Amino acid sequence: MLKFIELRTKSERENAAAPGVTAVTAGGKTNNRVPAVKLRLQHDFKDIAKYEDEERTAKGLPQFFQFEYPDPSDPMHFYLILEPPGGMYLGGLFKFKIDVPDEYPDLPPTVKCTQKIYHPNILPEGNVCLNILDKPDSARHGSWTSVMGMKMVALGLMHLFLEPNPDDPLNAEAAVDLRVNPEGFKRDVRTAMQGGSVKGIKYERVLR
């Protein structure tokens, strides 16, 4: 957890100097933000690539972030594919659909897992429980601020797979499983990742 917090602080400092966004004109007839948002995303993706290159060089790790763009001309709607370098979800490929609002980075992106997976912080339907994906004034009282960026989102999602959090769950049954019977939870995770059934729910195979 400490390393994640340190990375978050560093990322916030770097993004504070990133390109800003212009205001939306009155009445919503024109939107000057979108080009600036795309510039900010370019900065974010370069930040992710730099971080990953440094980590892979230092630790000899495989690539753990991949991006897919259904429409290459539209960087505001894409898929992020994670490959955890360790932990209980090692060997899996996890795909998230990310939609970036015109108000980014003032508002966080919308993130949803496209696969049915067994995880205390991710529902089988794909909803994700991650504090930084909500603003402080939202119903979930999140911690998103405008100095955060896509690198923070990618690292936050990866952190969920390296250290699942049973104390802030969406899937309550999986959270109890992890808290009460960690070894049984590990077995259930492997079963689900192989495309088997856990507690009456059939999961998708996500192994490489």
From TrEMBL:
Domain UBC core: 36-198
Key words, A-Z: ATP-binding, Nucleotide-binding, Transferase, Ubl conjugation pathway
Active-site annotation: C129 (glycyl thioester intermediate)
Alphabetical list of SMART domains matching this protein: UBCc
One Pfam family linked to the record: UQ_con
Protein name as it appears in the record: Ubiquitin-conjugating enzyme E2 2
Entry's family note: Belongs to the ubiquitin-conjugating enzyme family.
Organism encoding this protein: Paracoccidioides brasiliensis (strain Pb18)
Cleavable signal peptide: none
Sample GO molecular function, one term: transferase activity
